[in-house]
Design brief:
The chain is mostly helical and about 250 residues long. The protein contains twelve helices and no strands. This is Adenosylcobinamide-GDP ribazoletransferase.
Length: about 250
């Protein structure tokens, strides 16, 4: 049992991050059927990506924001942005569900992809600038909460979503059930309850809500989700969580 959980976490870190954890036989399969590995990977990657935020009270805000932006993509990689790019092209194309699904599979990069990726990176950078103006503990709580929250949102996609085509998304939805969402939810809640961080809880909730945006669009415009929606949800959820957390701090 413990071996399967460790394999699932290795599989999650290997798929969701750039951390050199190394794959072993069975890790991918263990991850695919263990949604609880999503928030665990989010906690690990969120803590590592938040390291530059330790300097919020010593370095300039722009330097810290740049450090956070670079740290996020150094830890989680840029492969999830491919989902943002494909979603951007699908958003602007004319036609019905079948046409939009075709665009998602197309490797050609259109203006929708360029704009969506640019907005996503800019939004994360601006979120990092907001974090850089906060006290260290508040900034880290929001950053970690947002990362855990967006991974919890991905777990929700796997547990409750319906895949529209064969591929990565279907591997996750076939490997999870609604009942299996209880474990990732409990793990995610524990990451903000144990340190008693209200800002982390706000960021977590904001990230989950952010994941709901591409999910809702995909159900209406595609008839279901796929791997690109998972990737796009990961990026959008993080941004939503960070910005909502910063807003909550400014209003407190």
């Amino acid at each position: 049992m413990i071996g399967r959980w460790l394999g699932a976490v290795r599989g999650a870190l290997g798929f969701l991050t750039r951390l050199p954890v190394g794959f072993r036989d069975g890790d991918w399969e263990a991850f695919r059927v263990t949604p609880a590995a999503f928030p665990i990977a989010g906690l690990i990657s969120g803590v590592l990506a938040a390291v530059p935020l330790l300097a919020t009270e010593t370095l300039t805000a722009t330097t810290v924001a740049l450090g956070y932006l670079l740290a996020v993509y150094a830890v989680v990689g840029i492969h999830h942005l491919d989902g943002v790019a494909d979603l951007g092209d699908a958003l602007v194309v004319h036609g019905g569900q079948e046409r939009r699904r075709e665009v998602l599979k197309d490797t050609t990069t259109g203006v929708g992809a360029l704009l969506s990726v640019s907005i996503t990176v800019a939004a994360l950078a601006l979120g990092g600038l907001g974090l850089a103006g906060l006290p260290v503990r508040a900034a880290i709580a929001i950053a970690v909460g947002a990362e855990v929250g967006t991974k919890l949102g991905m777990a929700a996609l796997a547990c409750f979503g319906t895949a529209v085509t064969e591929g990565m998304g279907k591997q996750f939805t076939d490997g999870a059930t609604a009942r299996s969402f209880l474990a990732p939810a409990a793990i995610a809640v524990a990451t903000v309850v144990v340190p008693r961080s209200p800002l982390g809880a706000v960021a977590l909730c904001g990230a989950v809500a952010g994941v709901g945006l591409p999910w809702y669009w995909a159900n209406r415009q595609l008839g279901g989700i796929n791997g690109d929606i998972f990737g796009a949800a990961n990026e959008i959820g993080r941004i939503a969580g960070i910005h909502l957390g910063v807003i909550a701090w400014t209003l407190s």
